Amino acid sequence: MKIALMDSGIGLLAATAAVRRLRPDADLVLSLDPAGMPWGPRTPEDLTARAVAVAEAAAAHRPDALIVGCNTATVHALTALRDFLEPDLPVVGTVPAIKPAAAGGGPVAIWATPATTGSPYQRNLIRDFADGVPVTEVPCWGLAEAVEHADQAAIDEAVTAAAALTPEDVTTVVLGCTHYELVAERIRGAVQRPGRPPLVLHGS
Questions:
Q1: Contact 5/19 with Cβ under 8 angstroms?
Q2: What is the tens place of the pLDDT at every residue in 36-71?
């Protein structure tokens, strides 16, 4: 089996590692957009155009499925990608893990790019899967960009700013961008409150 994965940049590493754990037998094709990364700050129209181009490059390798390893691209471009590639190539999106996070009882915070935070897509996920658990949407300004460029000072600044927007009683944080999984322990350290149960983190 051949599986293609697409994203703007190194956020794809987290998705690739997860697929490799689940399907060590599969051949993997990675398709990225080095000139346009990260996609989080882009307009939906620009992001969609770039995502379609990256998907087209992946499809040229004739995979059996395409995974969109980017929450923001899934939120804004999944419909366009499916219209472009299906039914010949199944397209699988990546969304914030709200359902498993809410199953823990909450309260929950969703850390996501500004383009994903507050989007109708994410609001619908909360409506359909939060099951009454309190959910706070936290826009993480500049965090994906800082991770992409390995800017340690900018990562610390962005994590600190997002932690300040996260309610103190949160028990679970959903990492709504695959870039954030690469700095998960720094996020845990910023959000974990003294005397509180260990913080639970959910990737995408």
A1: yes
A2: 887 877 888 999 999 999 999 999 999 999 999 998
